[in-house]
Amino acid sequence: MPKYRDHLPQLDGGTFLTDGGLETTLIFHDKLDLPYFAAFYLMKDGAGIEALRRYYATYASIATANRVGFVLESPTWRANPDWGEKLGYSKAALAEVNLAAIALMRELREKYEKLQSPMVISGCVGPRGDGYDPGQVMNEKEAETYHGEQIGFFRESDADLVTALTITNTPEAIGIVRAARKLRLPVVISFTLETDGRLPTGQRLQEAIEVVDSATDRGTAYYMINCAHPTHFEAVVATSERWVKRVRGVRANASRLSHAELNEAPTLDEGDPRELGAQYADLLCRHPHINVLGGCCGTDHRHVAEITRACKAAV
Length: 315
Hints:
Distance between the termini: 34 Å
Number of strands: 8
Number of helices: 11
Helix content: 40-55%
CATH class: Alpha Beta
Largest sheet: 8 strands, parallel, barrel
CATH superfamily: Homocysteine-binding-like domain
Order of helices and strands: EHHEHHEHEHEHEHEHHEH
Strand content: 5-15%
Number of domains: 1
Shape: globular
Oligomer: single chain
Low-confidence stretches: none
CATH topology: TIM Barrel
């Protein structure tokens, strides 16, 4: 049974961590093969499942050691119909792997959750296309139908909420929110931002949030920012306007490089974990409502540990 679906504890405040760059860690540090950047592909055998178990356990341990909450984001970012088809997964096989991923998150929660460290299970949804490039944008209805299949799997699991990561455009975001709300699942939208702090479509973050809120009657639990360095968006959120309060989470890149530069880079740019932690702390001092903290491309447990240390000292 879902534990927090009826009330997400992160909405009450307190710090909640999540993980870092899952795929970049598995590929560059663990030297694992992830076709199409699909971490769910590791669920196919015991060795892959154990690699995922070790990965999440590292972050869960950071949360418990610091007596803060944790969001267990399932490794299902690519486990939707188009990417699944590329990997030879039928609809039945996709349902099975999505449910198995949530079961793994439940296993980890049972092992690591403490009274001071509530652990929320999130069913991770990714974009239909690329997380850097909006490509051919679906309309809202198409997006609702497309993502509704995966969200339906999460509805039948122990997932407490759905989090859509690296979303590049508002019609897809609106479709995801409508699908989740129809299935009575809390939903979070996390937008990819470029070096100018705008979505890959060129839309301003403020406009994107206000458009999605208007189209869905404020249907998201909150919003997040991902796949951009803090220096890319700090000026965008440097305002006291109401829309900024809707942003509760940040999963920043370790690197200051653009997405185009990251795609061409032969090695992983890990940035400076201590500097990134300080930048998060500065962000929280200015926006104390932001309380879900993790990383994206190039980050790992070192970055999240520094973010935790710096933010605890600041807050």
